[in-house]
């Protein structure tokens, strides 16, 4: 785990905030190199599939010319939702580093189940609350503005 990648993900979350998107950023790293990055674009593109993690995965797949992202790590500014967790596992990403744990305990339980070993895919190592204050501050500002 390298905090410089989390700081980069937080920078992309700030870009989402500036564009009136839920401030979530994601960075995918392989062998110490950033291979993709993204931020939420649900509002901009009017699509439920435009989560930062999914966009970053698509970009990484294209760059590596392979849907298997073995040996890659993803840095995200908020615990993934179950949809994104499923995509992360299917892509065979090795490690998930999250800045902030989701406040919904059910989400955490689901993530732990999704990321565990199954008959098809290896376990995904999941680490959360790495930079909670920075991410929480940005999310709080965003939702305060929306209310």
Unreliable residue runs: none
Strand content: 15-25%
Report the order of strands and helices: HEEHHEHEHEH
Cα-atom Rg, whole angstroms?
14 Å
Structure description:
The structure is a single chain. With 147 residues, this protein is an alpha/beta fold. Helices cover 46% and strands 17% of the residues. Strands 2-1-3-4-5 form a 5-stranded mixed sheet. The model has no long low-confidence stretch (mean pLDDT 94).
In summary, what is this structure?
It contains six helices and five strands; from the N terminus they run αββααβαβαβα. By secondary structure, the chain is α/β, with parallel strands linked by helices.
Main features:
alpha/beta, 5 strands, 46% helix, globular
């Amino acid at each position: 785990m390298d905090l410089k990648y989390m700081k980069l993900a937080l920078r992309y979350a700030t870009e989402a905030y500036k564009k009136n998107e839920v401030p979530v950023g994601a960075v995918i790293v392989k062998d110490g190199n950033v291979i993709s990055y993204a931020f939420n674009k649900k509002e901009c593109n009017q699509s439920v599939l435009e989560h930062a993690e999914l966009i970053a995965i698509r970009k990484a797949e294209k760059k590596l010319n392979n849907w298997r992202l073995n040996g890659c790590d993803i840095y995200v500014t908020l615990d993934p939702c179950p949809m994104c967790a499923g995509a992360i596992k299917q892509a065979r990403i090795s490690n998930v580093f999250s800045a902030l744990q989701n406040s919904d305990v059910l989400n955490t339980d689901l993530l732990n189940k999704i990321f565990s070993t199954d008959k098809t895919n290896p376990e995904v190592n999941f680490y959360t609350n790495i930079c909670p204050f920075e991410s929480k501050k940005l999310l709080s500002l965003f939702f305060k503005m929306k209310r």
